[in-house]
Specification:
By secondary structure, the protein is α/β, with parallel strands linked by helices. Helix content is about 35%, strand content about 20%. It contains 17 helices and 21 strands. Strands 17-18-16-15-19-20-21 form a seven-stranded mixed beta sheet, sandwiched between helices. The chain has a six-stranded mixed beta sheet with strand order 3-2-1-6-14-13, with helices on both faces. The protein has a two-stranded antiparallel sheet with strand order 4-5. Helix 15 links the parallel strand 19 and strand 20. The radius of gyration is 22 Å and the shape is globular. It starts with a strand and ends in a 12-residue tail after the last strand. Bound molecules: beta-L-fructofuranose (LFR). Its EC number is 2.7.1.-. This is Rhamnulokinase family protein. It is an enzyme of class 2 (transferase). It comes from Arthrobacter sedimenti. InterPro entries: ATPase_NBD (IPR043129), FGGY_C (IPR018485), FGGY_N (IPR018484), Rhamnulokinase (IPR013449).
Length: about 475
């Protein structure tokens, strides 16, 4: 039986791609058929996503996918979409997007926090939603909207699915990042909509990973060259949910770091942890595939470095990433550190200057040597990961034996080694494309081309991936191979 191939649309904060995934007993083979850049743009008085351009790239990617599949004589069984979380577009009754969606990096939402917390006590919000406090959670963004009459909110992957199929749904893993979702019931927290004067049907009904939104609209199908009966299937549409589903863990005693623009660091649990101690430590209980709980914190991520690289490029300095990391690895340990998850690093621009200022405030000094700044970022991230994993073990009462790093950061040998050193636990790095793999596997299961729960899907990932193991060392120099 040929189950066909699956198209995965995976859009991150700095780039997007459309991939074809072929699933077999030997793992998932991924083929990138289209890649495009992404980034926030300053537009209409705020930091936004150029959604129209992204959607055009999605169509371009599906067209490429259709062409590649046709050449191979394959049929694309379904399409799955994942992106970053939290952000949404507003469409009117005619289905028209009324503005380009705001980015979570725009700081308008910060000004709405006090208003929301004046109406809903943060402790009460946490007891129900279990969501970590981030100034950009959807609930704060919505509180800045002037007039939502006659409008429908669609999270970014749901917005793409809507344009492709005409069907409105809110995929549950992503809904859990809004601040308006009940972590225990797995339903919308309707009382919070009411308290904030939001319509209860502002978002469409929930849809679970593995369920279908619907088939492609006839004109979309014709435009991309796919059969009109191609189904758009909901996956873990929050990219982190898809990535965690593809962590190649063999048993329960693991922590994961989904490492990209952000580092999402935590555990997979069956039940949320909604204690006051958990709230104080700002751990989140986001929903994973198959109703699991992603118990994690957002620790700063490679955004810190990519923003520095952007700044350095502006000054004409553009080293290869590998050269920068090698120079950073050659520097001594115990250099200055920053708190990588300080909200002061959320907005773009002048990252090297902001990092230097943070180090200065902490009473140390960091010159403007890019290698030293890079080393500071790596040390700070590793320290943040170690703190977070230790806290998660304690708060969830779950010992961790091994740390899995997936996503782009799994290729960063310096960061992986420093993470092993800081946590004192072995680090298993890979796969790089965990998000796309999780996306494809949930589609494959919905189509009957894979069976079983997450442990089984993880075996398929492990079968098809070369993993690299890092043992904790006293320093990065001892036995360290970059
Ligand atoms: C990672 C991610 C995080 C979320 C952040 C903003 O790409 O989805 O999980 O906190 O982006 O949406």
């Amino acid at each position: 039986r040929t189950p066909g191939v699956f198209a995965a649309v995976d859009i991150g904060a700095s780039s997007g791609r459309v991939m074809l995934g072929r699933v077999s007993g030997e793992g998932v083979e991924l083929e990138t058929v289209h890649r495009f850049p992404n980034g926030v743009v300053e537009r209409d008085g705020g930091l936004r996503w150029d959604f129209d351009a992204l959607y055009a790239e999605v169509l371009e990617g599906l067209r490429a996918a259709a062409t590649v599949a046709a050449v191979q004589g394959e049929r694309i069984a379904s399409i799955g979409i994942d992106t970053w979380a939290v952000d949404y577009g507003l469409v009117d009754d005619a289905g028209k997007l009324v503005a380009q969606p705001f980015s979570y990096r725009d700081d308008r939402s910060r000004t709405a926090v006090a208003h929301v917390h004046g109406t809903l006590d943060p402790a009460r919000l946490y007891q129900t939603t279990g969501l970590q406090f981030l100034q950009f959670n959807t609930i704060y963004q919505l509180a800045t909207e002037q007039d939502l009459d006659g409008l429908h909110a669609l999270l970014i992957p749901d917005l793409i699915a809507f344009l492709l199929t005409g069907v409105r749904g809110t995929e549950a893993t992503n809904a859990s990042t809004t601040g308006l979702f009940d972590a225990v019931a797995g339903e919308w927290a309707t009382e919070f909509f009411t308290a904030l004067g939001l319509r209860k049907d502002l978002f469409p009904p929930l849809i679970q990973p593995g369920e279908a939104y619907g088939d492609l609209l006839p004109d979309v199908a014709a435009a991309v060259g796919l059969p009109a009966e191609t189904t758009v299937v909901a996956v873990g549409s929050h990219d982190t949910a898809s990535a965690v589903a593809a962590v190649p863990a063999g048993n329960e005693a693991f922590a994961y770091i989904s490492s990209g623009t952000w580092s999402l660091v935590g555990l997979e649990l069956k039940h949320p942890v909604l204690t006051e101690a958990s709230r104080e430590a700002n751990f989140t209980n986001e929903r994973g595939v198959d109703g699991t709980i992603r118990y994690l914190r957002n620790v700063g991520g490679l955004w810190l470095l990519s923003e520095c690289q952007r700044a350095w490029a502006g000054e004409g300095f553009q080293p290869e990433l590998s050269a920068l990391l090698a120079a950073a690895a050659a520097l001594p340990a115990d250099g200055p550190q920053i708190n990588a998850d300080d909200p002061g690093f959320i907005a773009p621009d002048n990252m090297p200057g902001r990092i230097r200022a943070a180090v200065r405030r902490a009473g140390a000094d960091l010159g403007d040597d890019p290698a030293a700044i890079t080393r500071c970022i790596m040390d700070s991230l590793a320290a943040g990961y170690a703190r977070t994993i230790t806290a998660a073990e304690r708060l969830a009462d779950r010992p961790v034996e091994v740390v899995h790093v997936v996503g782009g950061g799994s290729q960063n040998a310096l960061l992986c080694q420093l993470t092993a050193n800081a946590t004192g636990k072995p680090v298993i790095a890979g796969p790089v494309e965990a998000t796309a793999l999780g996306n494809v596997l949930v589609q494959a299961r919905a189509a009957g081309a894979a069976t079983g729960g997450l442990p089984h899907l993880r075996e398929i990932v492990a079968a098809g991936t070369t993993l690299r193991r890092y043992e904790p060392l006293v320093s990065v120099h001892e036995g360290y191979v970059p």
